[in-house]
Write a structure and sequence with these properties.
- The structure is a single chain.
- The chain is of the alpha+beta class.
- The chain contains 11 helices and 10 strands.
- Helix content is 48%, strand content 18%.
- The longest helix is centred in the first third of the chain and has 32 residues.
- It is elongated.
Length: 359
């Protein structure tokens, strides 16, 4: 998670924003979507697969094991490249050159001497490289295991968040959650680069501290669609938002293999493509990367404390919290604007402009 800009933190502490408001900070702008979360007019999408659980009571938003198998494959590919070069290509090349030189040394004797030299003299270096390959795979899982997902309870209309490494939950009313999409502009050695972020902020009344969650997104539209998926779940239920993201496992390998075979039968994949698929997966240890993905899923999914499990139990419909009258009124107004062809930005630009002219 990226850190929120320091001046944006000051803004949130000193003056609460509202949905539709635009604020500038040192490196860019933030466009606020909540508190009082209103419809954005965007299609709800869970881009990146972060909806870990979706049911009629709560939605868990966190980090899935999506692409963990690919990360493990890259690790194994790097490790195998080092091993193949060290214990096969280099000794074979050296043995071949010495065998066909003017000395005409015995090929297998030179090959064996080369293996012995690499194992004894370069073994620690190769081991160090292997650790460097394995370390990112383990580190990312350990980092993910330090945090629990953010839980949105639609029946209570509350949000539960655990700061990284903490077992103390922060629970805040849904309509008081601050959310925004921001664009930050920075310079590199070659030009100007813009980064986009979907951010959320929750207040901890016990410590008087604001906790920030920031997730990088490809475009502002991607951030709006992810936020809309959360919003529409809270306001309308699971039938109106994307479902639970599938996790990667050994079954994923079987699905990909069957998909490759189907593509070959349909003529969309050549025999060379099939051969390359098998070679690539043999070199990267077949199903092992997907076993790593399953391990990541099991290890990093920290259980919720008993108090939050109780808080997450379904309530009788008569006890469900109701949206505020202000939210209902403003939602009705913006939906009328959408029906007339206005966008979220158009609606608030015109509203702010009218307010300024009256003032």
């Amino acid at each position: 998670m990226a850190k929120a800009p320091a001046d944006l933190e000051v803004y949130l502490k000193n003056q609460r924003p509202s949905a539709g408001e635009m604020r500038s900070f040192a490196t860019g702008q933030a466009w606020f979507l909540a508190p009082l979360p209103l419809p954005t007019g965007h299609a709800p999408m869970d881009l990146g697969g972060s909806f870990l659980e979706v049911n009629d009571t709560y939605l868990d938003v966190g980090q899935s094991n999506f692409n963990k198998a690919f990360q493990a494959q890259l690790m194994i590919w790097g490790l195998m490249s080092v091993l193949i070069m060290s214990f096969l290509v280099v000794p074979l090349s050296a043995a071949t050159m010495r065998a066909f030189s003017i000395y005409q040394l015995d090929f297998w004797q030179v090959f064996g001497e080369g293996l012995e030299f690499i194992a004894t003299e370069l073994g620690l270096i190769i081991l160090f490289i292997a650790v460097l390959c394995v370390f990112p795979v383990i580190r990312t899982t350990l980092q993910k295991a330090r945090t629990r997902p953010m839980r949105f309870n639609r029946q209570r209309r509350e949000v539960c968040y655990f700061p990284s490494g903490s077992d103390e939950p922060i629970i805040q009313p849904w309509e008081e959650l601050v959310a925004w999409v921001s664009v930050s502009t920075g310079t590199t050695g070659e030009g100007i680069m813009s980064t986009y972020t979907l951010g959320m902020a929750l207040d901890n009344p016990k410590t008087d501290k604001t906790h920030f969650l920031n997730q990088g997104v490809l475009t502002p539209a991607h951030g709006l669609s992810k936020w809309e998926a959360i919003r529409v779940y809270m306001e309308k239920g699971p039938a109106f938002c994307p479902g639970k993201a599938p996790y990667e496992g050994r079954y994923t390998f079987d699905e990909k293999r069957e998909s490759m075979r189907e593509a070959y039968r349909e003529g969309d994949c050549s025999a060379f493509g099939v051969a390359f698929w098998y070679v690539r997966n043999v070199v990267t240890w077949w199903r092992f990367p997907y076993w790593v993905a399953e391990w990541d899923h099991r290890y990093s999914m920290k259980p919720m404390p008993a108090s939050i499990e109780q808080w997450s139990q379904p309530l009788p419909p008569a006890q469900w919290a109701k949206p505020s009258s202000a939210l209902l009124a403003q939602t009705a107004e913006i939906e009328k604007a959408f029906a007339k062809g206005q966008s979220f930005m158009d609606y608030f630009n015109s509203t702010l402009g009218e307010a300024a002219s009256v003032a």
